């Protein structure tokens, strides 16, 4: 590992520090000033945002006066906090106004700390900062994230769930605590069937919590990866696109409108029947008096039977109209995809799709082999790949040197796509913690030391095996599912 | 009896504001027991007496087409929805009084229905491109209804109602604020019922009685 001299490092750090501080402040300002830009800001919102602004300013100031040598990391944290907040407001809750600022704050804090964790991995590879401060930051980060993840988030989820049920409104807090205790119990029990602990660690150590969080996170990640690995080529490649013409769409739309017309005419009959019944004084089968009863027996028996029959027909037609609507939407989407695939971007993604499909097949193959032959990936795949290529091509190549950089780039790509995947699929801190565990596998042996040191002696082999199993199961079942869905669709259109 | 003439009114608004409950209340005079998401479009029919109490009284069917979805959907979903916007005679815009964004999205909803959809500009200010002139020459009557009135605490009621008054003025429309789980808001004789009745009368008039030379081709 090459390490630049300390002085150079400090100089670089200083510059970066100033830049990040500025950007962080700017983001906080923009966030806080946003309500003032909207057309009719309410006074209370203004007050709230002033408070927020001063709070964030105070936070930034305290952070600025904090540890001098690790300025970089702290400011990036503020920056990430700002990004998390913005993302939350823009993308996730675009069409809904979030009243509870607690939710936003927790989300942003989780996001900020998670990003910092990833950043620390990158620092690990690059050799930035001295190792003792890195160690300190690792510990700090992990503690905070675990605290939030295991204590705060479930509690608040329970609290909000309970406050939505009107019955339990009085003792919200009590029920929230009960829910949280149930969650903790199951969380603890989760650890029993898995061989994740060596007996020398105590009850409330970090390893206990991480191992449990890791299991949940690895399962989720493997499921998502399995599905994503299959879905990605299916979406990108145009080979799978069915041919949809405008005539198809028009025909389907005409059917949909005809169905709607039929529903409307039947509902008109029902409405008119109800109205005449109402006008004649026969309200809802409540016969008043002797003659009322006789009348209801002779006349509205036929009427109401007729009505219930029509009502059943209406229900069936409504179901049909829903199906037709979904099919039409599907056709429109396919047509749009076909048009998109003819553009330059579409062709690029098509090519990527072929590339990804090969990658997915390879991954599934490797997962099978790992399970069948009871093997865990010890060598970094990139190094191995380069070794093989180099030996095959006979080129003089400094494998170690290049593999560092390439693996760094790959880890960066994994991180970036993980973040995107995370933020879109909404699985939070657990995803990040388990990503850390799994990224460890993709890194060459030298880099693994600090992570192992911080996370203690978890059984990493178990996690890799578990990931492979779940990945395989998920990928195979999504292949099956997509195959069935693809098969069914053209047949439906044949029946038109 | 099916020979009565018909009028088509769209009910538009964001997901979850209460359009299905509202339509059920208007047509069946009952509260909807189990609301669930509307897939596609659900239609219901209300029988309305035009010019009630006068010698020209006539009964019409008013079809309320409740179209589900969100205004920020993909273009393919929007073009699927567009099939329901043909031949429309009136629009009821529904928004949630507890959720400001749903009121802001009404501008985009109305533009989408009137076939003059602006591409979504950004996310920060949704009505930045709003231009009142677009609604000045609009022939189709609009009505703005705010739901979930009971969930607004008394202290905030005034400011919410002022905001919605501005909104209705922008659309050049009447506004009604109610709670769809309580039929007394639309009880016969209340001011809300009168406004509703006036709106339907206006829709019927525009459809059947005002055939000018420069009518919009949306009429059949």
What does this protein structure show overall?
The complex is a heterodimer of chains A (496) and B (220). Chain A is mostly helical and 496 residues long. Chain A is built from 15 helices and no strands. In chain A, helix 4 (101-126) runs antiparallel to helix 12. Mean pLDDT of chain A is 66; it is low at 35-44, 61-69, 198-203 and 424-430. Chain B has 220 residues and is of the alpha/beta class. Chain B has a single domain (6-208), classed as 3-Layer(aba) Sandwich (Rossmann fold). Chain B contains 6 helices and 6 strands; from the N terminus they run E-H-E-E-H-E-H-H-E-H-E-H. Chain B has a 6-stranded mixed sheet with strand order 2-3-1-4-5-6, with helices on both faces. The relative contact order of chain B is 0.18. The A-B interface holds A 34, 37-40, 42, 90, 94-97, 253, 256-257, 260, 263-265, 267-272, 275, 318, 321-322, 324-326, 328-329, 332-333, 335-336 and B 1-2, 4, 6, 14-15, 27, 39-47, 61, 63, 70-72, 74-77, 79-80, 83-84, 98-102, 105, 123-125, 127, 159, 163, 166.
Keywords:
heterodimer; A: 496 residues; mainly alpha; B: 220 residues; alpha/beta; 6-stranded mixed β-sheet; 6 helices; 33% helix; P-loop_NTPase (chain B)
Show the helix and strand layout.
The complex is a heterodimer of chains A (496) and B (220).
Chain A: H1 6-37, H2 43-64, H3 71-92, H4 101-126, H5 131-164, H6 172-189, H7 206-236, H8 246-279, H9 289-342, H10 344-372, H11 381-393, H12 399-425, H13 429-442, H14 448-455, H15 460-494
Chain B: E1 6-12, H1 19-28, E2 41-50, E3 58-67, H2 75-81, E4 90-96, H3 100-113, H4 133-136, E5 142-147, H5 154-171, E6 174-177, H6 191-209
Parallel strand pairs in B: 1-3, 1-4, 4-5, 5-6
Antiparallel strand pairs in B: 2-3
